[in-house]
Each structure stands twice: as C-alpha cells, then as structure tokens.
Amino acid sequence: MSLRRLARTDLAAFQAYRHDPEVGRWQGWQPQTDAQATAFLDEMASCALFEPGCWTQLAIADDLTGHLIGDIGIHISNDATEAEFGFTLARTAQGRGLASAAVREAIQRVFAETPVQRIHAQTDARNTACLRLLDRLGAVHLARIETEFRGEPCVEHRYELARCSR
C-alpha cells in the first residue's frame, strides 16, 4: 500500500468503490457522475497538499500495481493546528490491514509536513471496523455525540491523535 496523488486515470476504480452502497454506508459523500468525479480527481491531482482550510484527498494504491484501492481525506484547520481525516477502501481491499497502514502513513505525513498538533476522526458508532482501527492506532476517545446522519438519528464517536513530543 502507498499513498499518492489521485489522477484522472483512477476514474474507473474510484467510481467502482464510490458507487458500492456498502462502502459508502458510513461516508459523508454521495456517489458522483463520471463528469463530477473526473473534476474532483483533477482538482485533487493539482491542489496544494495540506493547505490550511482545505481538504486534501490522497489515493490509497496497491504497491505492486499502483491501482487505486481507496482514498483518504485530510482537512487542515484554518490555523493549521488541527486536522481531521476520513478514509474509504474498496470492499475487495478491506480486512487486510491496508486502511490501518494508509491512515498511519497519512498521520505521519501530516505531522511531518505541517504544524498540526492534533488529528481528529469521527465515525458512526455502528461502523465497528473504523472504531477498531482507531483503537489500533492508539486514538483517544473524546466524545460520544448524538446527531443525525442522512436524516436518521445516530451516535458518533470522536477520537484524537496528538503529535508526540520528542
């Protein structure tokens, strides 16, 4: 697994997992048309990485083939002291530790390339795979939040990873 910039050539793989209802079940995004997805891929291929106030979406790629298997989004706060992340992995790539590796690498890059002090993640309480991943990463549970997702009441959990002081 490696992280790289998204590219227009990722369109077919991107659309395949982004149109899978099981993959999108806990995501805040909705499937896009090919034209919308192409515009998004083009934007992410050329935007500044880790720009304060913006989301950066990176490709999660298979090491051997370079084929897109998912993506990870990172939002840097306006003051560049905090970040938030979210990730998506194609169903065929799940259950092999690839999401954990991608999130670890993304976190390391954010801490190495920005002044961010804390990284947050928030997920639906029913998304047990994501909750387990956050626990494996050593994220600290900050809050249980009663909210609404796609018009239905739900509970979300907010986690934090802090920059290690060395």
TrEMBL record:
Residues 1-166 form the N-acetyltransferase domain. GO terms for molecular function: acyltransferase activity, transferring groups other than amino-acyl groups. SUPFAM superfamilies: Acyl-CoA N-acyltransferases (Nat) (SSF55729). Gene3D superfamilies: 3.40.630.30. Coiled coil: none annotated. It comes from the Bacteria. The keyword Transferase applies. Pfam families: Acetyltransf_3 (PF13302). Keywords: Transferase. This is GNAT family N-acetyltransferase. It comes from Roseateles puraquae.
